[in-house]
């Protein structure tokens, strides 16, 4: 019974191997279809890679002529970055300005006295104001550090507070405003006032602040001065040309520590009539000398003709322009104040006062000018650190405005970031300086250069892609020395994938022509080619012809490019994008031509999309073919197994019959 078998389950004829061998032959069309799918998917991926390369070139080209092209970028270069920083937008004008940083804006920053480590903040309602904003919060009492943390958390970003251990046994509380400017002083409200006094943050302010209004009683004409013409109008003392007046302080001011004299001066420039010299005098008139007549004969007397002295026209009136017109009468003597700026408009004068320097009796305004009207108003003596009846006891800094001079014009702002004085420029004030700093607004040539280099780089990458896809020569890969080992292997796998694809060859030729064509610029033929700014194929070196440089790659002569950007920036801009008809639409240039050529390839429904869509169609059809083949193979295998099973059954039956006959014959012989 060792040769017993069940057809379809076990086989002594090895029909499974025969079926497997037959099915291998039947699966050849399926294997080929699956290989076609892999080829189609590889082609699709690489067409998509070409599409990305085209898109990178197009995007970099658009950057060179679009609304945000780099040729319009500006740089603000400060003569001293430690004093003045600056940034410029595209709206900035190429120019050089002079900026003197007299003061930087500051925020209030106060320290407490040294407090014991066990100092406690009492329960209460603590309120603060910073400029025009107020806030308050309820505090249940606690340590100084806990109060500082609560204050900072509840201040909505208006205050910063912290505690510093200045000695092992003591600590100080720091409270600082986050907003600069003289209008953003910190005021202590409610229980904060008590805490500020107890902790030594504030103290009682010294008395003595005073405002002096120009009135007929306070404005006097100094003895011996030319009276001139002056008027008091709307709180202003107005002095016409060549007029001197005193604004008297009664009682006299006795300066205290930290006090300031402040007043506002307005300068008005008056028209200057053109000097016309008078006509020379005619001289004395001689009477008629007469004569004698006898009969019909008249004898005339000779007239006199005296010699007259030579005449010269009188000199033109003297014009006086001197802004050194302010002084104080202090302890009986005159103290000269700094000169004013000769500019129309108002300017604020601040004079620090020294205690013990003597009492101040008057402000003297001597308008010696012939064509300037001067007005003085808002005269006051005050302590800039005072907070009403309180003042900081340990101020690190007090809220104050930034003061700068731009080309001699004084500008006052609350912030150290000033963006409304020079068009398109934001000034960053860092510290006061003694001298004016040159601020040069120039084109950002580096950004323009980097954008051009980026464009050429993406262009060369695209050309290298096309060379690899359309050639089977490994040299086109090996000469790309910037590739990593992995990138080189991947490039070799793509070699010749689209060999014979004429659309890629045509694309490469067209791109090369675009980069070599002449374009209209404002410099005419002197700058009409990319080669004239150092961008070319440069295929010849030392008279030798290099094959790698015949493949369409561009090279950049950076020295030539730098020179062109320095001397002819606008023409370089035109070379990439130029408005030829004045309709504010850029319609010519190398970058414009690249964009126009590539757009049909990469746009939605474009050439690349059509090619990948066609490949998708081939993949879909091949997938359906594979499904049908798999079903056919399944039926074929079932058929073969059924037929071979029937064959094995028939053979088994024949063998059984043969054994039965053999057994029968054996029994008959016995």
Written description of the protein model:
Among the domains are: 45-69 and 446-601, no CATH class; 109-204, no CATH class; 207-271 and 346-381, no CATH class. It is elongated. It has 12 helices and 37 strands. A hairpin with a 2-residue loop joins strand 35 and strand 36 (544-545). Helix 9 (558-567) packs across helix 10 (569-576). Strands 14, 16, 17, 19, 24 and 26 form a 6-stranded antiparallel beta sheet that branches. A 5-stranded antiparallel beta sheet has the order 1-33-3-29-30, with no helix packed on it. It has 670 residues and is an alpha+beta fold.
Write a concise keyword list for the protein shown above.
single chain; 670 residues; alpha+beta; 6-stranded antiparallel β-sheet; 5-stranded antiparallel β-sheet; 12 helices; 37 strands; FliD_N; coiled coil; bacterial flagellum
Helix and strand layout, with pairings?
Elements: H1 15-26, H2 28-65, E1 74-78, E2 84-88, E3 95-103, E4 109-111, E5 115-116, E6 120-121, E7 124-130, E8 133-139, E9 142-143, H3 144-154, E10 159-167, E11 170-177, E12 186-190, H4 191-198, E13 202-204, E14 210-212, E15 219-220, E16 230-233, E17 236-239, E18 243-253, E19 260-269, E20 291-294, E21 297-300, E22 326-330, E23 333-336, E24 345-352, E25 360-367, E26 372-382, E27 390-392, E28 395-397, E29 402-406, E30 409-413, E31 417-418, E32 425-429, E33 437-443, H5 445-470, H6 475-478, H7 485-494, H8 502-516, E34 535-536, E35 540-541, E36 544-545, E37 555-556, H9 558-567, H10 569-576, H11 590-602, H12 607-669
Antiparallel strand pairs: 1-33, 2-32, 3-29, 3-33, 4-11, 4-28, 5-11, 6-9, 7-8, 7-12, 10-11, 13-27, 14-26, 15-18, 16-17, 17-26, 18-25, 19-24, 19-26, 20-21, 22-23, 22-25, 29-30, 31-32, 34-37, 35-36
Domain Flagellar hook-associated protein 2 N-terminal: 11-108
Main location: other
Region (Disordered): 273-292
């Amino acid at each position: 019974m060792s040769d017993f078998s069940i057809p379809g389950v076990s086989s002594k004829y090895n029909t499974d191997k025969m079926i497997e061998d037959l099915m291998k032959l039947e699966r050849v069309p399926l294997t080929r279809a699956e290989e076609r799918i892999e080829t189609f998917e590889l082609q699709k991926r690489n067409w998509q890679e070409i599409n990305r390369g085209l898109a990178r070139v197009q995007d970099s080209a658009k950057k060179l002529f679009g609304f945000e092209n780099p040729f319009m970028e500006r740089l603000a270069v400060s003569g001293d970055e430690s004093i003045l920083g600056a940034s410029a937008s595209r709206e900035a004008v190429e120019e050089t300005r002079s900026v003197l940083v007299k003061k930087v804006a500051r925020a209030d920053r106060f320290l407490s006295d040294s407090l014991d480590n066990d100092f406690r903040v009492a329960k209460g309602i603590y309120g603060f104001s910073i400029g025009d904003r107020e806030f308050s919060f309820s505090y249940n009492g606690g340590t100084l550090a806990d109060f500082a943390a609560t204050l900072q958390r509840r201040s909505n970003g208006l205050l910063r507070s912290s505690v510093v251990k200045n000695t092992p046994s003591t600590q100080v509380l720091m409270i600082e405003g986050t907003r600069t400017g003289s209008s953003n002083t910190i005021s202590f409200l409610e229980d904060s006032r008590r805490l500020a006094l107890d902790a030594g943050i504030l103290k009682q302010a010294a008395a003595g602040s005073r405002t002096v209004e120009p009135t007929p009683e306070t404005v006097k004409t100094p003895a011996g001065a030319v009276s001139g013409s002056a008027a008091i109008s709307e709180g202003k003392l107005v002095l016409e040309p060549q007029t001197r007046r005193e604004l008297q302080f009664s009682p006299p001011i006795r300066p205290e520590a930290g006090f300031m004299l402040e007043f506002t001066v307005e300068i008005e420039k008056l028209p200057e009539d053109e000097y016309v010299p008078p006509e020379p005098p005619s001289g004395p008139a001689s009477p008629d000398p007469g004569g004698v007549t006898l009969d019909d004969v008249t004898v005339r007397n000779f007239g006199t003709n005296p010699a007259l002295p030579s005449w010269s026209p009188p000199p033109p009136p003297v014009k006086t322009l001197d802004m050194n017109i302010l002084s104080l009468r202090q302890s009986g003597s005159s103290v000269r104040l700094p000169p004013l700026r000769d500019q129309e408009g108002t300017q604020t004068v601040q004079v620090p006062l020294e205690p013990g320097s003597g009492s101040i009796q008057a402000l003297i305004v001597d308008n010696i000018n012939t064509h300037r009207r001067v007005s003085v108003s808002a005269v006051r003596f005050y302590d800039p650190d005072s907070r009403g009846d309180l003042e900081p006891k340990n101020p690190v800094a007090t809220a104050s405005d930034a003061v700068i001079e731009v080309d001699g014009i004084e500008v006052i702002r609350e912030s150290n970031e000033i963006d409304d004085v020079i068009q398109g420029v934001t000034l960053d004030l860092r510290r006061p300086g003694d001298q004016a700093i040159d601020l040069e607004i120039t084109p950002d040539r580096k950004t323009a250069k980097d954008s051009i280099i980026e464009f050429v780089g993406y262009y060369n990458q695209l050309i290298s892609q096309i060379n690899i896809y359309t050639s089977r020569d490994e040299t086109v890969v090996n000469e790309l020395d910037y590739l990593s080992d992995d990138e080189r292997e991947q490039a070799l796998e793509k070699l010749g994938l689209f060999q014979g694809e004429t659309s890629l060859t045509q694309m490469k030729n067209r791109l090369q022509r675009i980069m070599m064509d002449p374009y209209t610029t404002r410099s005419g033929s002197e700058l009409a080619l990319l080669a004239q700014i150092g961008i070319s194929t440069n295929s010849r070196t030392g008279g030798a012809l290099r094959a790698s440089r015949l493949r369409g790659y561009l090279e950049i002569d950076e020295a030539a490019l730098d020179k062109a950007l320095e001397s002819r920036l606008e023409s370089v801009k035109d070379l990439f994008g130029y408005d030829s008809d004045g309709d504010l639409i850029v319609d010519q240039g190398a970058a414009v031509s690249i964009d126009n050529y590539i757009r049909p390839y990469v746009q939605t429904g474009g050439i690349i999309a059509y090619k990948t869509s066609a490949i998708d169609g081939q993949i879909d059809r091949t997938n359906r073919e594979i499904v049908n083949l798999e079903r056919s193979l399944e039926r074929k295998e079932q058929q073969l197994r059924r037929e071979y099973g029937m064959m094995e059954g028939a053979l088994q039956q024949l063998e059984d019959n043969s054994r039965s006959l053999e057994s029968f014959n054996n029994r008959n012989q016995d």
